[in-house]
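Course assignment 3, question 2. Fill in each field.
Student: A.L.
Task: Predict the tertiary structure for the chain below.
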Amino acid sequence: MPDTQDSGWREEFTAFFAARHQHARRTAYLLCGDWHWADDLAQVAFVRLAAGWDRVREPAALDAFLRTCLVRAYLAEAGRAWRRREASVADLPDAAPRSGRDESGEAVDRTVFMAALRRVPPRQRATLVCRFYQGLDVAETAAVLRCSVGAVKSQTSRGLTALRAVLGKSITVDAMVEVER
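Answer field:
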């Protein structure tokens, strides 16, 4: 933790937390598909950010640091054996009507989309969330995930293919971004 003598960091951190907590929580939910787990992931990310607060020199880098902590916490937790034993179903549940959208299927129902996203392997899911929800480019995503640019490209391609296989339709960036709304 930063020096306890300097209370200025606490006020800065509190303001940053208040401004970014809900966004971090929604991002965590996209990654894991469970609000309770999302709360845990957001908490872990903010604790890591607080511990490294004095090492972040640029205020603009705080979002990147938080995002990196969040994604890495998710990937570490998703790799644990007891998480992999969670039951998944072969078929998606029947979906509710498409919330007044047109019948062409342009917009994907949020519930169906989240169920499909949960069926994508964790690394591919993290790549998709970074690329499309967070709006990171390939190089930024590679830095967050600690992998090569080529790995990000292949994980993105495989993740989109997996989503298309589950949903039976083409996936657009708008569908990924729409989940937040």
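Instructor remarks: The mean pLDDT is 79. The domain at 7-83 is CATH 1.10.1740 (Rna Polymerase Sigma Factor; Chain: A).
Grade: pending
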